[in-house]
């Protein structure tokens, strides 16, 4: 495929190819992961994982194998394959350049810190979601899916030692951040920018897909906000690493706080969604908007700076 044919490949077709490739690689990864679990722990453990019977420690270990081999690594592989072999433009679709002001990482840190009340507010709104009566079946399915996802998360984030916490910080915090940002803010957001011709539309569409991807409907709004923030971080800086940093801060904080709470080092319950009041929500909104302005201003100042 030449550079000219790349330019003629419609973004809609790019999207279809990317999704198809991702599904195919995940399918292959699941077969490999399942075979590894059977080889390491036996077929009964694989059945326990399928039934979500995770009382056996080997079932939890097997779940980690399946999670990493069938989902995490395949999504990363699909994004790289698509960027390098399909569109043949890794620079544009993965945005791995480090050519951005270091101050942006500091601003991102404070955005993620100050946005906590906003995340809580949106989460509380989301938890009150009530569908019409004739959709009771859908509502029950959404709640069951949410409860199942939360139970899996609770099992995967059980940490009794510092070594366990570090492992999960690297996998859940860092690796997941890299994988999901390559997929969404790298490939998908670039595709939608080309498809819609509108940066803002592309960021919001990608954020909707990002939130939907996690299949946690009662956490849809806070994850949508995170997706929008990550999207602007990348769009304005031109680098995927700004959103990877933000994503890592979000996930890594959850891992560390969970470890501290489980081991009774802090009293703050990470599942508590009633920490802030309306004044805190308003303050959070104002400061986050200011920090986003500062982020954009920092990028524009660098672009206007004379080359020495």
Describe, in plain words, how this protein is organized in 3D.
This protein has helices spanning 3-8, 11-41, 43-50, 57-86, 90-94, 103-114, 116-127, 136-156, 162-196, 199-213, 220-237, 240-262, 278-304. It is globular and about 60 Å long. Residues 1-6 have low confidence and may be disordered. The chain is built from 13 helices and no strands. It has two domains: 1-90, no CATH class; 95-308, no CATH class.
| Oligomeric status | single chain
Nearest-integer average pLDDT:
91
Radius of gyration equals: 21 Å
Q: Assign an overall shape.
A: globular
Number of helices: 13
Structural class: mainly alpha
- Spans of at least 5 consecutive residues whose pLDDT stays below 50 are 1-6
Q: How many β-strand runs?
A: 0
Secondary-structure element order, as H and E?
A: HHHHHHHHHHHHH
Query: Main beta sheet: strand number and arrangement?
Result: none
């Amino acid at each position: 495929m030449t550079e000219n044919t790349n330019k003629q490949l419609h973004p809609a077709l790019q999207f279809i190819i990317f999704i198809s490739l991702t599904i195919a690689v995940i399918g292959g990864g699941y077969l490999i992961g399942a075979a590894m679990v059977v080889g390491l722990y036996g077929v009964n453990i694989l059945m326990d994982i399928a039934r979500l019977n995770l009382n056996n420690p080997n079932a939890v270990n097997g779940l980690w194998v399946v999670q990493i081999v069938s989902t995490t690594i395949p999504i990363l592989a699909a994004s790289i394959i698509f960027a390098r072999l399909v569109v043949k433009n890794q620079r544009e679709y993965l945005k791995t350049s480090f050519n951005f002001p270091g101050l942006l990482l500091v601003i991102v840190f404070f955005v993620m810190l100050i946005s906590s009340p906003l995340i809580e507010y949106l989460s509380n709104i989301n938890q009150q979601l009530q569908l019409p009566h004739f959709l009771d079946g859908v509502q029950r399915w959404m709640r069951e899916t949410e409860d199942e996802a939360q139970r899996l998360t609770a099992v995967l984030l059980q940490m009794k030692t510092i070594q366990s916490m570090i492992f999960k910080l690297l996998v859940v915090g860092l690796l997941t951040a890299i994988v999901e940002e390559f997929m969404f803010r790298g490939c998908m957001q670039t595709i939608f920018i080309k498809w819609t011709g509108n940066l803002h539309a592309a960021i919001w569409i990608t954020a909707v897909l990002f939130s939907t991807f996690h299949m946690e409907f009662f956490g849809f709004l806070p994850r949508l906000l995170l997706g929008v923030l990550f999207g602007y971080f990348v769009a304005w800086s031109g680098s995927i690493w700004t959103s990877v940093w933000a994503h890592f801060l979000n996930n890594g904080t959850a891992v560390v706080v969970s470890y501290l709470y489980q081991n009774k080092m802090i009293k703050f319950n990470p599942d508590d969604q009633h920490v802030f009041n309306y004044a805190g929500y308003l303050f959070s909104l104002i400061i986050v908007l200011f920090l986003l302005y500062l982020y954009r201003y920092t990028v524009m100042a660098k672009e206007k700076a004379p080359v020495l």
